[in-house]
């Protein structure tokens, strides 16, 4: 007499265990990615237009998505003005360091007689400042202008504009003062005036008004009349450099190769101008 025996259950017939996240096997996942259908734990979930996607699918989509550009052809850097905030942070930290040790000024400030042997001073001097009112004026102007221009140009072009304007200001100071001058030059004014010049060109290229910019520029340009120790030569050099670069960026727009070739040419040109000053004296 035969007795009924239980039919051996196959793998598909066994009760399924709880789904686990592929990235975190120790975690139960109750939600599946709408794109790849894999289970995903709360840490790996990302909200999508419809449902939830896993972090891997989001990263894959970001790599294949077309890269957007700003209105003037730069790569957008997001809503936070990271470059502007970083520049302000560096200036503030170095200003505090100046109050602690005079060596910061001695090692980083620019002086005409040191520029040929220690060329880094052409740029490092733009991150140092004198009295507290000096850094306050410059950082306020940078905060007012920087985020807007950074949004228009993108982070990389904005940083190039700022640094080359600072360099242009120092080179102009070198040419417009005695070559053997031992006076120290510090301050971000050359770079800030470069932003003023750039903003005039960029706003005109976009069809925006520039009247308010000229008023602010006139106020800042008048400061040397009341404070003769201000190096107005750096203001002029930075302003002209900023205008030139902004004109380049407004024309090149989405032609990245042309924009960066022009940026490199501007940097080389300023370096040649600085070197030639020491050759002719």
Automatic annotation (TrEMBL):
> What stretches pass through the bilayer?
82-100, 120-146, 158-176, 182-201, 208-226, 232-250, 257-280
UniProt superkingdom: Bacteria
Q: Which UniProt keywords apply?
A: Hydrolase, Membrane, Transmembrane, Transmembrane helix
Q: Provide the membrane topology annotation.
A: Multi-pass membrane protein
GO-annotated molecular function: serine-type endopeptidase activity
The answer on whether this UniProt entry bears the keyword Nucleotide-binding reads: no
Q: Which SUPFAM superfamilies match?
A: B-box zinc-binding domain (SSF57845), Rhomboid-like (SSF144091)
As for subcellular location, the record says: Membrane
Q: Kindly give the Gene3D superfamilies that the UniProt entry links to this protein.
A: Rhomboid-like
* Pfam families to which the protein is assigned, alphabetical: Rhomboid
Q: Name one GO cellular component term.
A: membrane
- Keyword Transmembrane helix appears in the UniProt entry: yes
Please list the residue ranges annotated as the Peptidase S54 rhomboid domain: 117-251
Spell out the PANTHER family in the cross-references.
Answer: PRESENILIN-ASSOCIATED RHOMBOID-LIKE PROTEIN, MITOCHONDRIAL, RHOMBOID PROTEASE
Task: Identify its protein family.
Answer: Belongs to the peptidase S54 family.
Designated name of the protein: Rhomboid family protein
